[in-house]
Design a protein that fits this description.
InterPro entries: AAA_GajA/Old/RecF-like, P-loop_NTPase. Helix 6 runs antiparallel to helix 9, helix 7 packs antiparallel against helix 8 and helix 7 packs antiparallel against helix 9. The C terminus is likely disordered. The longest helix has about 55 residues. The strands form 3 sheets. A 6-stranded antiparallel beta sheet has the order 2-1-4-5-6-7. Strands 11-12-3-13-14 form a 5-stranded mixed beta sheet, sandwiched between helices. The two termini are about 30 Å apart. By secondary structure, it is of the alpha+beta class. The protein is built from 11 helices and 14 strands. Among the domains are: about 160 residues, Rossmann fold; about 90 residues. A hairpin with a 2-residue loop joins strand 9 and strand 10.
């Protein structure tokens, strides 16, 4: 059985003077009234009574009161929780009359049910993590999201690389009339070197002829004395002239042009090879990109299946990309009433033994939405005690100047004669 509040009695807490309330077991109990009349003080008093010192208001005692705060809550199982006296000491009495303390209360009181704004003001990811903690798929989903993020980053890098390769390949010129591989110029260079060697030999022969002609001229001048030498030189000269007469130097211009043509051809070949390589790389990266896309979609499906099979506290509630989603909307796109419904459902599931939740400032809801929210609370078997700046018929009670409008106002207590005090019964 989830714990709910049957009755509450509050005296001298913040703006409250004396208030008695019997909230509805299921659905919405709205504490209405104008501003600064004590509505929120009632919720603060409940939170303090059940939640302990961490919820104690910084100025708990009503200003001007000589009587300390006096708080009493009766739960639906008969458990009585009281805080009273100068130190607001806690007294917990179970239905059998046994005494207990804060530890017993902590067992069924959900802290966020006493302080729903703490949950609502958290980041969307914090809310999502709370939900995942409830449904028990947090670790699995975290691992799947880690895998998805790694693959997404890898796919992004590969996709960019593929785009760069494709762009590079498109920008490269292509020459269809050249070989598929670079050609070698070594044979032409060898032929060129042979011709240059022969031309060098020819030059040496020309130099030899010139030398002999000089010697012949010298000998001729001395011909009278050197007839025998002249005869020998004439024979040598004859031979030398015959040897050099028909010599013709070969041109290397054609080979030089061929070598130049080879370099240009090879430049085109290399350009074609670069283009082919870029296209092949782009195709390979694109294939990797598509494979990662398939794997990412598989991981996302696993995540969806994981959440689809989970026992979620509210239809339409889910977690996507680490964000809390309700009916397809992220938190900041939800209406105020949707945020309240989601928060209430999640906080309720955090501790199913806690059957109530405190809600402050329901002015954001129009009357139709308020009625719809109340019906949903009833269907869920959940008790909500809420405040609203209103004095309309939607309010269960109206707080006016620290009292419940329509209730008998207790007589002012006599000033205490001793240092102690005793609070009167309601």
């Amino acid at each position: 059985m989830s714990m709910k509040i049957n009755k509450l009695e509050i005296e001298n807490v913040k703006r409250v003077k004396a208030v008695k309330i019997e909230p509805s077991a299921n659905g919405l109990t709205i504490i209405g009234g104008k501003n600064n009349q004590g509505k929120t003080s009632v919720l603060d008093a409940i939170a303090w009574t059940l939640g302990g010192e961490r919820f104690r208001p910084s100025q708990a005692s009503r200003e001007g009161s000589t009587i300390p705060p006096n708080l009493k809550i009766v739960m639906n199982n008969g458990l009585v929780v009281e805080r009273k006296g100068k130190n607001s000491s806690l007294k917990v009495t179970d239905p059998s009359g046994q005494k207990a303390g804060q530890q017993l209360l902590d067992g069924f009181v959900e802290q966020l049910a006493l302080n729903l704004p703490k949950f609502m003001e958290g980041s969307s990811k914090e809310k999502a993590n709370t939900l995942l903690q409830i449904i028990g798929v947090g670790p699995q989903l975290v691992e799947l999201e880690r895998q998805e993020k790694e693959m997404f980053n890898e796919r992004t890098y590969i996709g960019r690389t593929a785009d760069q390769k494709e762009k590079y390949a498109k920008e490269q010129p292509y020459f269809p009339d050249v070989p598929s591989t670079p050609i070698s110029a070594s044979e032409l260079i060898r032929q060129q070197q042979e011709i240059l060697a022969r031309n060098g030999e020819n030059q040496r022969k020309r130099e030899r002829r010139h030398q002999l002609e000089q010697e012949y001229q010298k000998v001729t001048e001395q011909i009278q004395a050197l007839l025998q030498e002249q005869s020998r030189l004439e024979e040598d000269l004859k031979v030398a002239r015959e040897s050099a007469e028909d010599l013709v130097d070969q041109s290397t211009a054609e080979l030089e042009q061929n070598i130049a043509d080879i370099e240009e051809t090879n430049r085109k070949v290399r350009a074609n090879l670069d283009k082919d390589k870029a296209e092949e790389d782009a195709k390979d990266y694109r294939a990797q990109y598509n494979a990662l896309t398939t794997r990412i979609e598989e991981v996302r499906k696993q995540k969806a299946d994981l959440l689809k099979g989970a026992d979620l506290p509210l239809p339409g509630l889910s977690v996507e990309e680490g964000e809390l989603i309700y009916n397809g909307q992220e938190w900041d796109n939800m209406s105020g009433s949707e945020q309240l419904r989601v928060s209430t459902a999640i906080v309720r599931r955090l501790n199913p033994d806690c059957g109530f939740v405190l809600l402050d400032k329901l002015e954001q809801m129009d009357l139709d939405t308020l009625q719809e929210f109340g019906k949903w609370l009833e269907q869920e078997g959940l008790q909500a005690i809420a405040t609203r700046v209103s004095t309309g018929d939607e309010c269960s009670i109206i707080i006016d100047d620290g009292y419940v409008s329509g209730q008998d106002v207790p007589a002012a207590p006599e000033p205490p004669k001793q240092t102690g005090w005793k609070a009167g019964d309601f």
